[in-house]
Amino acid sequence: MKDADQAAGPAGRPRRADARRNEEALLEAAAAVFVESGVEAPVRDIAARAGVGTATIYRHFPTRADLIIAVYRHQVEACAQAGPDLLATGPTPYAALGKWISLFVDFLVTKHGLAAVLRSDDAGFDALHAYFLDRLVPVCTHLLDAAAGSGEIRSDLQAYELMRGVGNLCIGAENDSRYDARRLVEVLVAGLRRPD
């Protein structure tokens, strides 16, 4: 079985390492621009952030939907991989959980607008949502279990509930400058702590 880094290119050949790095840089740049300006941001802004021409982006991602879906999948994977890393390096499981939730909020911000882009393809949207849940609920579960096991947080919350609550706090934040979803998410995560 091929490693994810050895994903086959168009002719079935493994892609070169520099091609994989270039695509990674494009996805990182697109995610950053989407956080700042939404998924309808001009492609030239993404190209400028990545230090490439717009033709390079279109060569990798022929349509905006292709780019948005690739960013979505890339960020799901980054979020999934971050959980164990944060748990291994964080000072406490609760601190790791808090940092992971912050990354999750970043992901949710870039996700806004995805439904509109995929509106004509409900099956595609459903598949992406299932992928999101399959990859991230177990990671959040592991972080919650570790923090509960260390006695830092209450143990009666399920990962899906927490993720859904965070998601609900993020809805509409991009349209209201008076609303700080991150602050409310911090309050939610603080509320997980066990009373002294």
Automatic annotation (TrEMBL):
Q: Read off the InterPro entries from this record.
A: Homeodomain-like_sf (IPR009057), HTH-type_TetR-like_transc_reg (IPR050109), HTH_TetR (IPR001647), Tet_transcr_reg_TetR-rel_C_sf (IPR036271), TetR_SbtR-like_C (IPR049445)
**Pfam families registered for this protein in UniProt:** TetR_C_43, TetR_N
Which key words are in the record? Answer: DNA-binding, Transcription, Transcription regulation
In this entry, the residue ranges of the DNA-binding region are: 42-61
Instruction: List where Low complexity composition bias occurs.
Output: 1-12
Tree of life domain: Bacteria
Q: List the residue ranges of the region (Disordered).
A: 1-20
The HTH tetR-type domain, residue ranges: 20-79
List the PANTHER family hit by this protein, alphabetically.
Answer: HTH-TYPE TRANSCRIPTIONAL REGULATOR BETI, HTH-TYPE TRANSCRIPTIONAL REGULATOR RUTR
The name of this protein is: TetR/AcrR family transcriptional regulator
State the species of origin.
Streptomyces lannensis
- Which taxonomic lineage is given here? Bacteria, Bacillati, Actinomycetota, Actinomycetes, Kitasatosporales
